[in-house]
Amino acid sequence: MIDGLIAGRLMGDASRRVDKAGRTYVVARVLARNKMDEEFIVNVIAFDEMPSASLLALADGEALTLSGALTPKVWTDKQGNHRPSLDLIAVQVMTAYHVGSKQVAMDGGSPE
Q1: For the domain that residue 19 is a member of, what is the CATH number?
Q2: In terms of pLDDT, which residue wins out, 1 or 68?
Q3: What is the Cα–Cα distance from 98 to 54, expressed in whole angstroms?
Q4: Residues near 104 by Cβ (< 8 Å), separated by ≥ 6?
């Protein structure tokens, strides 16, 4: 397992699901790019309430940063090309909305 920090854009809306034991979790897909502008699909799953709520509050195409446990994978497209992807168990999600809230909290004030 690799601890990772991923920045990208949400692909579609996140969705809440329920496992066989009745526990809820959230799944999402994120499109991330590396320095060489190669695209990676990151399959995200969140079990904790805070990252789950953050993912559900976002819409398709919104920017976000996630941290958590990464697992590299390889998948084969319709043309037979092998492509990399990542699975991430999100423990923290940060968006532009969080940045404003954090800045206000650090300044010790309230939003204007």
Answers
A1: 2.40.50.140
A2: 68
A3: 9
A4: 110, 111
Report the pLDDT value the prediction gives residue 106, as an integer from 0 to 100: 43
Q: Indicate whether 20 belongs to any domain.
A: yes
Summarize the confidence of residues 83-102 as an average pLDDT. 84
Tell me whether residue 17 is exposed, middle or buried, using C-beta atoms within 10 angstroms of its C-beta: 0 to 12, 13 to 18, 19 or more.
Answer: exposed
Domain membership flag for residue 112: no
Cβ proximity of 10 and 30 under 8 Å:
yes
Q: Where are the beta strands (DSSP E) in the chain?
A: 2-10, 15-18, 24-33, 39-46, 63-76, 82-95
- Token pair 């995200």 in the structure block, residue: 44
Question: How many domains, in total, are found in the chain?
Answer: 1
**Residue 10 to residue 31: CA distance in whole angstroms:** 6
Q: What is the domain range of residue 71?
A: 2-107
Write the pLDDT tens digit of every residue in 4-32.
999 999 999 999 999 999 999 999 999 99
* Dist. CA 76–CA 93, nearest whole Å: 29
69 has a pLDDT exceeding 80? yes
